[in-house]
Amino acid sequence: MRLSSLLVVFLSFFSCGPIRDCDSTVAYYREDECLLIVKKIPSDTDSRFDFKGVNPITKKTCDCNSKISDMWWVDYKEHIEIGDTIFKKKGELFFSIHKKDTVLSFNFECDEKVYK
Question: CA-CA distances (angstroms) from residue 107 to 41, 59, 65, 100, 104?
Fold first, then answer.
């Protein structure tokens, strides 16, 4: 194996560990917001949380594409359908999907701890 290949393997192995600071992540997630009546669902192959629709308060077209919370919100992608309303208010740490007959709410969890 060439030295350059060995270096790439070495760096990949040591840079992709499960290290994260949950408290710092929580601070970022509190700042994000998503208020949206879903009109368009992103493709199944898309790993981004790029739902498009209408803000229920302003009635303006918007999306919930977030560089901050994509990794959290995308976990609930399979629960969302056209017509659902997505709520994640600034300052809160729960994400909810309002359907016609039910509400699904998800608290942020990190390292087996539930944040509220």
Answer: 22, 27, 19, 21, 10
- C-alpha span between 24 and 13 (Å, rounded): 24
Written as one letter, the residue type at 20 is R
Taking the CB of residue 83, how many other CB atoms lie within 10 A of it?
12
Q: Which residues are CB-contacts of 3 (< 8 A; sequence separation ≥ 6)? A: none
End-to-end CA distance of the chain: 49
Backbone dihedral region for residue 4 (phi beyond 0: left; psi -120 to 50: alpha; all else: beta): alpha
pLDDT of residue 47: 67
pTM, entire model = 0.75
Number of C-beta neighbours around residue 67 at 10 A: 9
How high is the pLDDT of residue 11? 39
Asked if residues 52 and 63 have their Cβ atoms less than 8 Å apart, the reply is yes
